[in-house]
Every structure is written in structure tokens, then in C-alpha cells.
Design a protein that fits this description.
Number of helices: 11
Distance between the termini: 54 Å
Strand order of the largest sheet: 1-4
Number of domains: 1
Order of helices and strands: HHHHEEEHHHHEHHH
Strand content: under 5%
CATH class: Mainly Alpha
Radius of gyration: 19 Å
Largest sheet: 2 strands, antiparallel
Number of strands: 4
Shape: globular
Length: 295
């Protein structure tokens, strides 16, 4: 039983970070109806930049973290202005292919600057574990989950009640209608990419702190999060949260119980198997909106 609880707890931590990165997918999809396949590279770059700033300037880690958020916001705005803005009005598949190319470029930039070796992270969380029932729990886990929950709650309120959030939803529904209502589509695109880069950087820093280091494998989180956002519903913040938790826990349970029996590899495949099974019943995801088109 203790082993099961430990797997579930670890899965919740990973799942919360999945949910945070998935939020970046949702933000861009809500504003432009496209999937950003460079989201995992945003996470990896944010983690590398944070530890690089900390090591180079010797400032407190919180200051390095805030500078990383500023860098990520500027990166998102710059990429949108240089690469994505000229694609406004172009077919969605063209923009998706552009994000795939952007992912490759960002990965090459990271490897060119920092190489492929793991960069150690400083101890950003207290090391003394906290006992929850029979389990000793790392404080890093608690801080990570708590931070993610706060951010997800804030963004849920942002999308539902703020003018910018409503404008992003309107832009996703129809860019022409949004323009006719006086909404600056260009500004909404810049805002969405900026926020997506920032939340990914937060996820990268939290993941680096929990794991004690960052390497190129962080980029794979972007691919792992795709089942999360599809499962939850591409335009649903609540779906990103629930999908992240489900996939994180499922992945850990499969790795703990099935990998030893089947020789490994089940942990990586389990989320995609679950995705296919659930979409067979709910094609639009758990919280996705059902769209009916007249032919």
C-alpha cells in the first residue's frame, strides 16, 4: 500500500507539471486554434536559462527565476512578432509545421550553448521531508504542486472574467469576428505566446528543482503533454488540470507495476493507450466542446 501511495504522490507532482505545460497549449489554442509543438522546448529553455543566470550572476535564485520569466515573456513576444504574425490568415497546418521547425531550432540552440550534459540545479526547496500519514514527502513536491495549483486557478479566472481572456477566446472562435469587434488579433497572439512561454518556463524550473538538474530530455515533456491536452479538451483549462493529473498518475503506476513484469517501456506508452481508449468514448475529450457543423 505504501508503494502504491508513493507512486500516486509522485504521479501527482509530475501530473501537475504536465497540467502547467498543457496550459501553454491551451492558451495558444484558445487564441489561434493551433497546437504549439515547441512547448516542450520552451520548458527546457526556461530551465536552462534560469540556472545559467543563477550561476553567472550569483544573484538569489528567486531573482534568477524572475529574470527568467521576463526573458521567457520577451521570447514569446519576439517569436510571435517575427515568425507567427506573418502567418495570420494562413492555413492552420502551415502554422503547426512552423512550430515543429521552431522546436528543432530551439533544441539546437540549447545544445549548442549548454551541450548535452545534465546541468545541476541548486537546492531551491528545503531538503527536510514532511510526513503525510505513513509517507515521507519531499517539500519540493509540495511546493511544486502548490505553485501549479495557484497558477492554474489564476489562469482559470483570467480566461473567464478578464477582458484579455475573453478577447483570446473570441479570437480563437473567429479572427474576422474579433477584428470586427475592435479586438487586436496581433496583440492577442503576442499575449498568448508570451504567457505560454512563461508558464512553460515555470514548469521547467519546478521540474529542474524537483529532479536536481536539467537536460535535453526536458523537451520530451512537450510530446508527453499532447495526450494531456487532447484528453482534457484542447480549449479547456480544467481539462488540462484533470488530464495532467490522470496522465501523471497513470504513467507512474504503469512504470511501478507493469514495467518490471513486461521488461520496461510500458510507462512511456500507457498515456497514449489511455488516450485512445477515452477518446473512443468521448471524441472531444473530457471537457472539450462538441462542435456540430452543417454540411
Amino acid at each position: 500500500m505504501e508503494f502504491f501511495l508513493q507512486l500516486v504522490l509522485s504521479g501527482l507532482v509530475v501530473g501537475s507539471i504536465y497540467a502547467l505545460v498543457g496550459l501553454g497549449f491551451v492558451i495558444i489554442y484558445k487564441s489561434s486554434s493551433i497546437l504549439n509543438f515547441a512547448q516542450g522546448e520552451f520548458l527546457m529553455l526556461g530551465a536552462y536559462v534560469c540556472v545559467a543566470i543563477f550561476n553567472a550572476t550569483k544573484v538569489p535564485f528567486l531573482a534568477a527565476f524572475l529574470l527568467t520569466l521576463v526573458f521567457s515573456a520577451l521570447l514569446g513576444v519576439t517569436l510571435e512578432r517575427v515568425l507567427l504574425r506573418p502567418m495570420i490568415g494562413e492555413p492552420v497546418i502551415s502554422v503547426i509545421m512552423l512550430t515543429l521547425g521552431l522546436a528543432s531550432v530551439l533544441k539546437a540552440v540549447v545544445q549548442g550553448i549548454w551541450g548535452t550534459d545534465t546541468q545541476p540545479y541548486p537546492e531551491i526547496f528545503p531538503t527536510t521531508p514532511v510526513r503525510i500519514g505513513p509517507l515521507p514527502v519531499s517539500q519540493g513536491y509540495l511546493y511544486s504542486v502548490g505553485s501549479v495549483l495557484v497558477l492554474l486557478a489564476l489562469f482559470s479566472v483570467f480566461f473567464k472574467y478578464s477582458r484579455a481572456g475573453i478577447a483570446m477566446r473570441a479570437t480563437a472562435f473567429s479572427q474576422q469576428v474579433a477584428l470586427s469587434m475592435g479586438i487586436s488579433v496581433k496583440r492577442i497572439f503576442a499575449l498568448s505566446w508570451s504567457i505560454a512561454a512563461v508558464v512553460s518556463a515555470v514548469g521547467g524550473v519546478l521540474l529542474g528543482g524537483v529532479r536536481g538538474g536539467v537536460d535535453g530530455a526536458f523537451a520530451l515533456f512537450g510530446l508527453k503533454v499532447i495526450p494531456v491536452v487532447i484528453l482534457g479538451g484542447l480549449d479547456s483549462v480544467a481539462g488540462a488540470i484533470v488530464g495532467g493529473v490522470i496522465m501523471g498518475v497513470l504513467e507512474n503506476l504503469a512504470g511501478g507495476y507493469l514495467d518490471p513484469l513486461l521488461g520496461g517501456g510500458v510507462k512511456e506508452v500507457a498515456p497514449f493507450v489511455a488516450l485512445v481508449a477515452i477518446l473512443a468514448v468521448r471524441p472531444y475529450g473530457l471537457f472539450g466542446k462538441i462542435k456540430i457543423e452543417r454540411v
